[in-house]
């Protein structure tokens, strides 16, 4: 009974410390968040809302789900096509960041796809690597 | 009961203290000269640029207005969108107030033609008389940037080929620079918008 109590209190202590250290919840994608602030937030804004008809939003964007396989290539090589996001047209060029590694891109996509209310699942490194091999 | 009244009174005093209008006076910024023992503040010199509607913009366009200046270029991969997003907040707050305008100078005079500025303004969802986007002679743009005490020096190593400060600069009716902020910093822009209200009160007597 005593050992049960001990393990119970240990488990409790562990979950409390996890909670406070940010091991759960919104801080999961820290590396992705750091990369987002460096490479993306200047245009797509800190809260992912974009800018008028110039820069499309990432928060609540239907484009993310519809173009899941292309996203790794877009981050690395940019985008110059006219695209539609939530029914609105965007035609400005987006510069890519060629220096991003596969791991960077994975972390970045996981942050973007799971922030600001987005719940688009998680990318695995293998998936990003395979997608990058198919970039045109 | 005494305690209760005291508490209510204290609360009331606190609320009064917090809602009292801002009594700050904005300084006149920039260089000054001593003329016959008097301090004379340098003012923004005469300028003439072309806006997004192909119309000439001069100091006279901002007669009886206070205005907010910045320097940008359309294909700017770094700070411009954030400065524009914060400029948009200012535009939206004062777009129905003829006493306030924004004046954005393109520092990429080669690519940012009048047509490009027009398209940019439309996509941003802004227009005159609230927001002028201008282009003009290269040296004139860079020269006036110095006068507004901003930094707009061509630097081939900077991302996008230009280096610039992202500052928003507030100019009064007498062509004096009165305040500025970091246009990429939303909190600093909040303070700057309070400065606009203070300047409106000073120069027009109302808010």
Task: Please describe the structure with a list of short key phrases separated by commas or semicolons.
heterodimer; A: 136 residues; mainly alpha; Cytochrome Bc1 Complex, Chain D, domain 2; 7 helices; B: 207 residues; alpha+beta; Glutaredoxin; 7-stranded mixed sheet
Summed up:
The complex is a heterodimer of chains A (136) and B (207). Chain A has 136 residues and is mainly alpha-helical. Helices cover 49% and strands 4% of the residues of chain A.
What does this structure look like?
The complex is a heterodimer of chains A (136) and B (207). Chain A has one domain (28-133): Orthogonal Bundle (Cytochrome Bc1 Complex, Chain D, domain 2), CATH 1.10.760. Chain A is 49% helix and 4% strand. Chain A has seven helices and two strands. A two-stranded antiparallel ribbon of chain A has the order 1-2. With 207 residues, chain B is an alpha+beta fold. Chain B has a single domain, classed as 3-Layer(aba) Sandwich (Glutaredoxin), CATH 3.40.30.10. Chain B has helices at 2-19, 80-94, 114-124, 138-147, 186-204; strands at 32-35, 38-41, 48-51, 56-58, 66-72, 100-106, 131-135, 167-171, 177-182. In chain B, the strands form two sheets. Chain B has a seven-stranded mixed sheet with strand order 4-3-7-6-5-8-9, sandwiched between helices. Chain B has a two-stranded antiparallel sheet with strand order 1-2. In chain B, a hairpin with a 5-residue loop joins strand 8 (167-171) and strand 9. Chain B is globular and about 75 Å long.
């Amino acid at each position: 009974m005593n050992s049960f109590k001990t393990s119970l209190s240990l488990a409790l202590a562990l979950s409390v410390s996890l909670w406070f250290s940010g091991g759960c919840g919104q801080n999961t994608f820290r590396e992705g968040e750091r990369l987002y602030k460096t490479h993306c937030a200047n245009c797509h804004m800190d809260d992912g809302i974009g800018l008028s008809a110039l820069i499309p939003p990432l928060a609540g964007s239907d484009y993310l789900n519809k173009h899941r396989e292309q996203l790794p290539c877009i981050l690395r090589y940019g985008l110059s096509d006219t695209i539609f996001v939530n029914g609105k047209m965007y035609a400005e060029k987006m510069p890519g960041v060629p220096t991003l590694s596969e791991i960077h891109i994975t972390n970045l996509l996981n942050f973007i796809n799971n922030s600001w209310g987005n719940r688009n699942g998680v990318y695995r490194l293998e998936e990003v690597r395979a997608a990058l091999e198919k970039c045109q | 009961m005494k305690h209760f009244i005291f508490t209510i009174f204290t609360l009331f005093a606190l609320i009064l203290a917090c809602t009292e209008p801002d009594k700050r006076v904005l300084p006149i910024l920039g260089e000054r000269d001593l003329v016959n023992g008097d301090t004379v503040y340098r003012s923004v010199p005469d300028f003439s640029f072309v806006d997004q509607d192909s119309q000439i913009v001069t100091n006279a366009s901002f007669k009886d207005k206070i205005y907010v200046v910045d320097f940008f270029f359309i294909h700017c991969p770094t700070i411009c969108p954030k400065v524009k997003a914060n400029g948009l907040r200012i535009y939206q707050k004062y777009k129905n107030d003829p006493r306030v305008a924004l004046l954005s100078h393109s520092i990429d005079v080669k690519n940012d033609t009048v047509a490009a500025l027009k398209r940019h303004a439309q996509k941003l969802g802004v227009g005159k008389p609230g927001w002028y986007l201008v282009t003009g002679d290269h040296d004139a743009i860079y020269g006036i940037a110095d006068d507004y005490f901003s930094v707009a020096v061509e630097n081939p190593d900077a991302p996008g080929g230009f280096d610039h400060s992202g500052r928003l600069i507030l100019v009064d009716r007498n062509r004096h620079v009165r305040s500025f902020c970091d246009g990429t910093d939303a909190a600093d822009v909040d303070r700057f918008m309070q400065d606009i209200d203070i300047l409106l009160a000073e120069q027009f007597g109302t808010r």
